Amino acid sequence: MAALGLVAAALLLSSCDGLGGISPIFPTPVSPNGQDIYDLYKGISIPAIVIFLGVELALLWVVLRYRRSKQPVGYVPPQVHGNFWLEIAWTAAPLAVVLAIAGYSFVTLLKDFQPPTNQQMTVVISGHQFGWEYRYENGLVVHQEGTLAGDVTPFVVPVNTLIKLQFQGTDVIHSWWVPAISGKTDAVPGYDNVSWLKISQPGSWRGECAELCGVGHSTMQIIVQAMSQSDYDAWVKTQLATQSPAASPSPSPS
Q1: Are residues 139 and 103 in the same domain?
Q2: Which residues lie closer than 8 Å to 223 by C-beta, 6 or more apart?
Q3: What is the residue range of 146's domain?
């Protein structure tokens, strides 16, 4: 029954992927900070699963081995009132595991959320109810409103480029999250947060706002599209031409 329950849960979770949501199964990382978080996830989850299975199997063995139906009538098990070294062990072991997890997490997250100093470009990302705005250094602004009726406007970046992401909030707290690229980063009104990305291959990856921000929260989807430098340059040229049409001639003075 437990196995059937796990299979059903996996099928249910897999149905969350696609429009209006992201897969709960961790995607393949495409940025170094995403890879570090993925490694951290595995480094914590695998030992946790091993410990869980060990404890449950030991408990199951005790329940089956010493069940009442296997004992003589009136059987009283040995009364153990304490074991100093055993109590030290089962106190120290969980403490060591928790401290190891805390240390590993702290070191990884401290490294990956440090503002970069050698970035090749900077993009300011502003969260609003309910969408995102991406402001590039060259003056290009991509305004994206949230929707569940189709794909949202993508955030376009070049591959193999270290990009500093500067987050701002214009109304309430939002949280920009693309699991394949980086951890959740809050966009807070009045305070700038910083993250970064360096995507290694062309493609598109989905994310969403990870902070409950109002009735339209579910529409705040994210698509990050990475392309080659030449394709990115062509895209920028097209976008700038669209946003800055040639000025019409000034009227002649009367």
Answers
A1: no
A2: 151, 152, 153, 154, 155, 204, 205, 206, 207
A3: 121-243
Distance in angstroms (rounded) separating the CA atoms of residues 10 and 23: 11
pTM over 0.70: yes
The answer to whether position 10 is within a domain reads: no
What confidence tens digit (pLDDT) does each residue in 60-88 have? 998 888 888 877 888 887 777 788 888 99
Share in percent of the chain as helix, strand, coil (round to 5): 40, 25, 40
Please report, for residues 18, 138, 226, the alpha-carbon distance to residue 223 in angstroms, rounded to integers and kept in the order given.
11, 21, 10
CA 18 to chain centre: 16
Task: Enter the DSSP assignment of 201.
Answer: S
Cβ contacts of 228 within 8 Å, gap of 6 or more: 158, 159, 202
Residues in the chain: 254
- φ, ψ of residue 147 to 5 degrees: the values are -160, 155
Kind of pairing between the strands at 121-128 and 131-136: antiparallel
**In terms of domains, do 130 and 33 share one?**
no
Residue 33 CA to residue 177 CA, distance in Å, equals 12
| CA 84 – CA 224 distance, rounded (Å) | 56
Token couple for 205: 């990856």
DSSP code, position 115: P
pLDDT in tens, 146-192: 999 999 999 999 999 999 999 999 999 999 999 999 889 999 999 99
Is the pLDDT score of 106 beyond 60? yes
Identity at 186, one-letter amino acid code:
D
